[in-house]
From TrEMBL:
Record flagged with keyword Oxidoreductase: yes
Highest taxon above the source species: Bacteria
Domain Enoyl reductase (ER): 10-321
GO CC term (a single one): cytosol
Organism this protein belongs to: Phenylobacterium hankyongense
Keyword set includes NADP: yes
The name this protein goes by in its record: Quinone oxidoreductase
Length: 323
């Protein structure tokens, strides 16, 4: 089978398409023939070495497709089922992958492989951020950075379904229009406007009870200054570079603030948590309250070009590799 591998960290040029042996599922595992592979910003962190890996390595943690074979003891899936997974051993940038059956989910009728590969990691991230990391409430005004991105679009739609008023930041006028289409109530162009000043203006000087920030370095100070007293800063990405360290007195001076740096995998640590999170996401998709936009697709062989597009900030919605 074909797979993307890299033996040194660096730019997109380190990604190579190679031929490797198609794996065979062992006990408790399933072999999935990929129909679509999700591209996520965390993939660039692995490629650059921001999140260190043992090299050489595969890349990618999310895909969906058809179960081609099941190992001994597997009752969760049958051959022919549509399945998806997010997380675990890297290597989704490939034609096939072997996955522990307990870490994959079956796709319900009405959710196809491309939708699942575009939605599972990003959508479960939105689910835990809004419902468990900081459970938002009807009537709250919240701040969502990078609102036109893959996670951002889902966050905005899901937050609106929960009754929130959403302040969305984006980098361009084109992305502002996308955020409005997905329900954002207020738009801030974070490269051109003072985010904190705009948030204070919109909220009558109060600030927001929670801010979801996947941008990192570029938005860090503005996010801190946008929070209401006892507000929560949820930092879950580094698209512009790592956020700086936070000294505890800074949180005190900001109004007894809370700061957290969560990761999805601590919120889907068990099969029960995984099924509940994915089930909630699929329910939102099937209800029409969350629409998944696949903004761009690339052939598997063009993973380098996909990463160049992602890091240029010119992508909208989700990006997929198609084996």
């Amino acid at each position: 089978m074909r797979a993307i591998r890299f033996s040194q960290t660096g730019g997109p040029e380190v990604l190579e398409l190679v031929e490797v042996e198609t794996p065979t599922p062992g006990p408790g595992q399933v072999l999935i023939r990929h129909q679509a592979v999700g591209i996520n910003f965390i993939d660039t962190y692995h490629r650059t070495g921001l999140y260190p890996l043992k090299l050489p390595s595969g890349l990618g943690s999310e895909a969906a497709g058809v179960v081609e074979a099941v190992g001994d003891g597997v009752t969760r899936f049958q051959v022919g089922d549509l399945a998806a997974y997010a997380g675990g051993t890297l290597g989704a940038y490939a034609d096939y992958a072997v996955v522990p059956a307990e870490r994959a989910v079956k796709l319900p009728p009405g959710v196809d492989a491309q939708t699942a590969a575009a939605a599972l990691l990003k959508g479960m991230t939105a689910e835990f951020l809004l419902r468990r990391c900081y459970p938002v409430r009807d009537g709250q005004t919240i701040l969502v950075h990078a609102a036109a991105g893959g996670v951002g679009q889902i966050l905005v739609q899901w937050a609106k379904a929960l009754g929130c008023d959403v302040i969305a930041t984006v980098g361009t006028l084109e992305k502002a229009e996308r955020a409005r289409e997905h329900g954002a109530d207020h738009i801030i162009l974070y490269r051109d406007q003072d985010v904190a000043a705009e948030v204070r203006r919109i909220t009558g000087g109060q600030g927001v009870p929670v801010a979801y920030d996947s941008v990192g370095k570029a938005t860090f100070e503005g996010t801190l200054a946008s929070l209401a007293r006892r507000g929560t800063f949820v930092s879950f990405g580094n698209a512009s570079g790592p956020a700086p360290p936070v000294e505890p007195p800074r949180l005190m001076r900001g109004g007894s603030l809370f700061f957290t740096r969560p990761t999805l995998f601590d919120y889907i640590a068990t099969t029960e948590e995984l099924d509940a999170s994915a089930g909630a996401l699929f329910e939102m998709i099937l209800s029409g309250q969350v629409k998944i936009e696949v903004g761009q697709t690339f052939p598997l062989a063009e993973a380098r070009r996909a990463h160049e597009a992602l890091e240029s900030r010119h992508t909208i919605g989700a990006s997929l590799l198609i084996p």
